[in-house]
Amino acid sequence: MLSYKAPIADMKFVIEDLFDFYGHYQKTPEFAEATPDLVEAIMQECAKFSENELLPLYQSGDKEGCRWEDGKVFTPKGYKEAYQQFVDGGWPSMAHGEEYGGQGLPPSLGMINSEMMGTANWSWTMYPGLSHGAMNTIAAHGSEAQKQLYLTKLTEGSWTGTMCLTEPQCGTDLGQVKTKAVPNDDGTYDISGTKIFISAGEHDFTENIIHIVLARLPNAPEGTRGISLFIVPKMQVDEQGNILGSNNVTCGSIEDKMGIKASATAVLNFDNAKGVLIGPENKGLECMFTFMNTARVGTALQGVCAAELSYQNALAYAKERLSMRSLTGKKFPEKVADPIIVHPDVRRMLLTQKAFAEGGRAMVYYAAKLVDDIESAKTEEARKVADDRLGFITPILKAFLTETGLESANLGVQIFGGHGYIKEWGMEQIVRDVRISTLYEGTTGIQALDLLGRKILLTRGASLKEFTKEILSFCKDKSMLSNNPFKRQMNKFVWPLSKAVANWHQYTLRLALKAKKDRDVVGSASVDYLMYSGYIVMAYFWAQMAQTAYEKLAGEVENRDFYRAKIKTAEFYFERLLPRTKSLAKTMMADPKTLMQLDAELLSFL
Asked: How many whole angstroms from its chain centre is CA 22?
């Protein structure tokens, strides 16, 4: 059976020592109540809920799965009860505005809690997690009446929400959406169509589910320019939020999936369901994308969760499993064999998991801090600066961290050997569950096209220059200036990082020039370019963590081994993982003709 202990020390290292979240909170009046004592108490309570309530349901929920009967979905045993505990504890309202019943605490604190809950049980966490997209959309684009009606219920957790985008004939290409919205005389719309892959689209947690639905108005322009956004509740309600009856939204089935089996992925049918327009007509995609960055950062978190859960269990197993002797001589002569943790290759796999989990956590928390800045910005200029920075790193976080999370989960199975392939241990479930993270909210390929095509080439590299300016400033401060007492120790990090950034710019320019002659260059290079970028970005955060650890060790700290481990893991990352950029540079610069010269008919010999 899987075990999980919330890594509070690691999390506090990032929020306190690395990023100074408390100083960040105190600078923002609306977040000033997030004091160290309050945050500590929240983290400890969330850890208890995650470890004691959610983790025990993780494997049983996978085994039982969700059940569909006559349009109704029944979640696995214990899931509904855990959600009620979640609501009773005030967790849904914590990081939402006070004007609609929230506690007004920072969004970044909500991300910290989501990590613990998601690591303990990602399938369960998706149910309240899907509400955030609906809530953010209504908060950003809804009328005051819509906010009072829907946000209040969503904030208290008595209703949940979803985003209904995908249809059978289209996935990422939402320009093919066919769901119709016919206006009524009373200002409502009749929504008709079928949506698929709707996570938490139907369940038994709450009496109502609020769907945010993409649909087309009559005579709307074709493609993405003709899509509008609508609020469509599962059950009709009056202005006070009282349930009136069915709204002709039915669940046709749920998907039989590879993983996250306890999360209901629904096919929803809208048959003249009553809805209301949110945002301007034909601007549905623009409205939807206002929250997409935060949604994708949430998906990136799944990769971190998988790496952490797999690492914790693989580490415990490696310390206990006896097999063979160390190549340098017996380490435990009193035992029949040495624990496998003495073997270099097992260490390689464990350190890879550790580096990805802890490096990924720093990347996600950095993004969470930017979300705070966006929500608390007092000027449009300040909001745009934070939003542009978040927009640039989002595809890197979403794709890179889910791919490395999947790699980490696979390494966990490998460490367990044959036992890792057996359901009893739970390691194979982590692989199955995290696999979807590389697909939803845009596949790795889609994120890569967004990064290279939109965020880099369309801005002529402006977003890259802004972000790398921050990295180079760090490198200059920590190595080239004499005021850093750890200059000598930091050279092994900042010089390779500085060189990597210079190469990043050089390869980006070369790709831009090649793309002018052949547009297929963008598609052929994009995934390798994104992964290349991801390794450099994570190297930046590992360099920061090493610097922070050196600073802590220079003072009086109790757990000195904790900080030494940070430095040693940073060294491993720079020596063993950052060099992957060399092969990625080679492949991303390769001529796309090797991909495109074989006709489609010749790809098969059937």
From this structure: 23
